[in-house]
UniProtKB/TrEMBL annotation:
Domain of life: Bacteria
Alphabetized GO MF terms: ABC-type transporter activity; ATP binding; ATP hydrolysis activity; molybdate ion transmembrane transporter activity
SMART domains: AAA
Official protein name in the record: Molybdate transport system ATP-binding protein
Source organism: Consotaella salsifontis
Database matches in NCBIfam families: modC_ABC
């Protein structure tokens, strides 16, 4: 159903020799990742949504507003978007403060409409308070990108478009920025479309996913649903994992273990204490989950959870990937377990079977 809480995007046509044939509808909240291999058309979709690329057979509706259809084409400056590119392009002659306020919509504040996110909050969220009087030339790559994100937010967008905002940064700087993106995502109401070909970023940040290949949308939906769908390439990839949104239940300070609950189970994860009820993202790799017919005792494995096999798929000739539903009824959150075909055969495993999923704590992120 299309309502004012969705982003609807349909773009069908040619860009030179490249054919774009995409259609998806997603909730207009949270972070949606456009994910797929290099050259599959992710940036092209983002540019179409921004109005920077015009494809005649296109439809773009955001939160009930039509930006493009058969009779409408709003130019980019009439679309309330913030755009963050791979490389931060700040005005070199302006201070960080003036870069941040450059696109701020003075007229809406003058009219008494408060922007969704204020200057102080943006500066605080991105940790750039100490940089306000600096020139862009005196910033590190990571600091520049944080300022670029701040500038995009302060234009009071209804949609934030981020095109591989971390890809021009080294691994260490990426790690430095990811927590800021997590904070933005947790604290801001503005929906984010985030282009990436790094699955680690998607696992950490995304609520929803648009999976693309060769100009087409393979699937669109909730991240966990697509990660654990054995018909899609993610579940069968070597690094397949499932991201679960978990609630902090407690902390064992003697051993530094955080207790997290998900639908149908609880996990102990090495992590500092958190506030009870706080949400955390738990990422569980298919290769770190083993299966047992009995709950094993005398094992170093701390997480042993009743579950059921919901379905299974062969991975190549000699491996099997099973989709598990947590809980003795199998109705809880889904996990993936990857194992040898030999283990699958020796234990006589099959769909519907109740058993135990075992996950080492130290394997959890
Ligand atoms: N205006 C255009 N004219 C001709 N070809 C185009 C145009 N825009 C994009 N393309 C082509 O469309 C294809 C998809 O490009 P796009 O940048 O959207 O992919 P991508 O998935 O974002 O890739 P990457 O992850 O490498 O950034 C490429 O082959 C590109 O050369």
């Amino acid at each position: 159903m299309i309502d004012d809480q969705t982003i609807e995007a349909v773009f069908r046509g040619r860009l030179g020799g490249f054919v774009l044939d995409t259609a998806f509808t997603l909730p207009a909240h949270g972070l949606t990742a456009l994910f797929g291999p290099s050259g599959c058309g992710k940036t092209s979709v983002l540019r179409c949504i921004a109005g920077l690329t015009r494809i005649a057979d296109g439809l773009c509706r955001v939160g009930g507003d039509t930006w493009q259809d058969k009779t409408t084409f709003r130019p980019p400056h009439m679309r309330p978007i913030g755009y963050v590119f791979q490389e931060a392009s700040l005005f070199p002659h302006l201070s960080v403060r003036r870069n941040l306020t450059y696109g701020a919509p003075h007229k809406s504040t003058a009219a008494g409409v408060k922007p969704a996110v204020g200057f102080e909050e943006t500066v605080d969220l991105l940790g750039i308070g100490h940089l306000l009087d600096r020139a862009p030339a005196k910033l590190s790559g990571g600091e520049r990108q944080r300022v670029a994100i701040g500038r995009a937010l302060l234009s009071d967008p209804r949609l934030l478009l981020m095109d591989e905002p971390l890809s021009a940064l080294d691994a260490e700087t990426k790690e430095e920025i990811l927590p800021f993106l997590e904070r933005l995502h947790a604290r801001l109401a503005v929906p984010i479309l985030y282009v990436s070909h790094a699955i680690s970023e998607v696992e950490r940040l995304a609520d929803h996913l648009v999976l693309m290949n060769e100009g087409k949308v393979l699937a669109a939906g909730r991240l966990g649903d697509l990660q654990s769908d054995p018909r899609l390439p993610l579940a069968l990839s070597r690094d397949a994992s499932v991201s679960l949104d978990a609630t902090v239940e407690g902390h064992d300070s003697t051993y530094g273990l955080l207790e997290l609950s998900v639908r149908g189970g609880r996990f102990l994860v090495p992590a500092p204490a958190g506030c009870s009820g706080e949400m955390r993202r738990l990422s569980i790799k298919a290769g770190d989950v083993s299966l047992s017919l009995q709950p094993s005792s005398g094992s170093t494995i701390l997480n042993i959870l009743p579950c059921r096999i919901l379905s299974h798929t062969r991975r190549g000739e000699h491996e099997v990937v099973a989709v598990l539903g947590l809980g003795s009824d199998g109705m809880g959150a889904h996990l993936l377990a990857r194992m040898t075909r030999r283990s699958w055969t020796m234990l006589h495993l099959g769909d519907g079977q109740p058993l135990f999923a075992q996950v080492k704590s130290v394997a959890l992120r």
